């Protein structure tokens, strides 16, 4: 039976470490505040939002929600981001992506103030991830993979790692963080040939393709560690499932994250950590 790498104990450890930092800010009259900017009502966004609200409440972070319809105009969305940028009481912003196809996501991400970019979507944050220089924050979900592996004692250095998915939201930043930890990383995508063979050769597998239970037992072998970032609504099962077929893959591998109860809670804890850092940075600038 595989080690089930649940996110709750990881998230709890991060949360406990944050509490005294929040207290220190509160003693200075500062309440860390997160803006949640959501366009539309995707099931995975709603699930993440619920988790973020609960985690922020536990930590002591105020939340302001900016909820817009799926057909929102580019102009209205940019105006909303401008409102967030100008509000000194808001320290960080979480904007759910991908955005609807009619919106220019690149321009919208660029509009967010870098100091409030707690989820690594601006050019400055990307530069830090890819070059190791400058300031900014790693995307929370990619960072949560590293926190999980660290907590459960999974060594990355020198290991063969397969990352399934190359999006700027998860796949590519996760690959960069894994390489920074000295993993030997192969990034796989829809054009990758012999994908099952490549995945079976890896010691650590990170899956972020956005297709419910698409990666089954043919991709895995004994001794592997599997981090499933996917969160999808299964009409057949009427519940949230991952990108990995957990029920059939779990008996084969050494360790695996469940969905739900895996990466998600860690992601919200990392988000809170970034918001508190942003609040601390803002307080230092004011001082």
Describe this structure in words.
This protein has 287 residues and is α/β, with parallel strands linked by helices. The protein folds into two domains: 29-113, Rossmann fold; 140-264, NAD(P)-binding Rossmann-like Domain (Rossmann fold, 3-Layer(aba) Sandwich). The protein is built from ten helices and eleven strands. It has helices at residues 8-27, 43-59, 74-86, 105-111, 123-131, 140-151, 171-180, 195-201, 246-249, 263-286; strands spanning 3-4, 33-39, 62-68, 92-95, 160-164, 184-188, 204-207, 225-228, 232-234, 239-241, 255-256. The strands form three sheets. A six-stranded parallel sheet has the order 1-11-8-7-5-6, with helices on both faces. Helix 1 packs parallel to helix 10 (263-286), helix 6 (140-151) crosses helix 7 (171-180) and helix 6 (140-151) crosses helix 10 (263-286). It is globular, with a radius of gyration of 19 Å.
Write the layout of secondary structure elements.
Elements: E1 3-4, H1 8-27, E2 33-39, H2 43-59, E3 62-68, H3 74-86, E4 92-95, H4 105-111, H5 123-131, H6 140-151, E5 160-164, H7 171-180, E6 184-188, H8 195-201, E7 204-207, E8 225-228, E9 232-234, E10 239-241, H9 246-249, E11 255-256, H10 263-286
Helix pairs in contact: 1-10, 2-10, 6-7, 6-10
Give a short overview.
43% of the residues lie in helices and 16% in strands. By secondary structure, it is an alpha/beta fold.
| Largest sheet, strands/sense/barrel | 6 strands, parallel
Order of helices and strands: EHEHEHEHHHEHEHEEEEHEH
Low-confidence stretches: none
Quaternary arrangement of the chains shown? single chain
Proportion of beta-strand residues: 15-25%
Radius of gyration: 19 Å
Main sheet: strand order: 1-11-8-7-5-6
End-to-end C-alpha gap: 54 Å
CATH class of the largest domain: Alpha Beta
Q: By CATH's scheme, which homologous superfamily of the largest domain applies?
A: NAD(P)-binding Rossmann-like Domain
Mean pLDDT reading: 94
Q: So how many helices?
A: 10
């Amino acid at each position: 039976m595989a080690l089930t790498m649940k996110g709750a104990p990881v998230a709890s450890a991060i949360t406990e470490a944050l509490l005294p930092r929040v207290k220190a800010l509160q003693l200075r009259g500062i309440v860390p505040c997160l803006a949640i900017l959501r366009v539309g009502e995707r099931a995975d966004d709603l699930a993440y939002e619920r988790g973020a609200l609960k985690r922020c409440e536990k930590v002591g972070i105020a939340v302001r929600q900016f909820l817009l319809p799926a057909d929102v105009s580019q102009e209205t969305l940019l105006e909303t981001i401008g409102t967030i940028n100008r509000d000194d009481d808001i320290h960080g912003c979480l904007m759910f992506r991908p955005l609807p196809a009619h919106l220019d996501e690149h321009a919208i991400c660029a509009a967010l103030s870098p100091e409030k970019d707690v989820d690594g979507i601006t050019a400055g944050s990307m530069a830090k991830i890819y070059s190791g220089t400058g300031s900014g924050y790693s995307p929370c979900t990619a960072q949560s993979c590293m926190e999980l592996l660290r907590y459960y004692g999974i060594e990355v250095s020198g290991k063969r790692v397969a990352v399934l998915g190359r999006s700027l939201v998860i796949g590519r930043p996760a690959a960069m963080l894994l390489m920074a930890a000295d993993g030997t990383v192969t990034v796989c995508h829809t054009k990758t040939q012999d994908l099952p063979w490549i995945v079976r050769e890896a010691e650590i597998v990170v899956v972020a393709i956005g297709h419910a239970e698409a990666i089954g037992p043919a991709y895995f072998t004994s001794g592997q560690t599997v981090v499933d970032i996917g969160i999808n609504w299964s009409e057949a099962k009427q519940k949230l499932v991952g990108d990995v077929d957990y029920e059939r893959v779990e008996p084969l591998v050494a360790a695996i994250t469940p969905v739900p109860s895996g990466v998600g809670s860690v992601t919200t804890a990392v988000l809170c950590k970034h918001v508190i850092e942003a609040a601390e940075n803002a307080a230092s600038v004011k001082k």
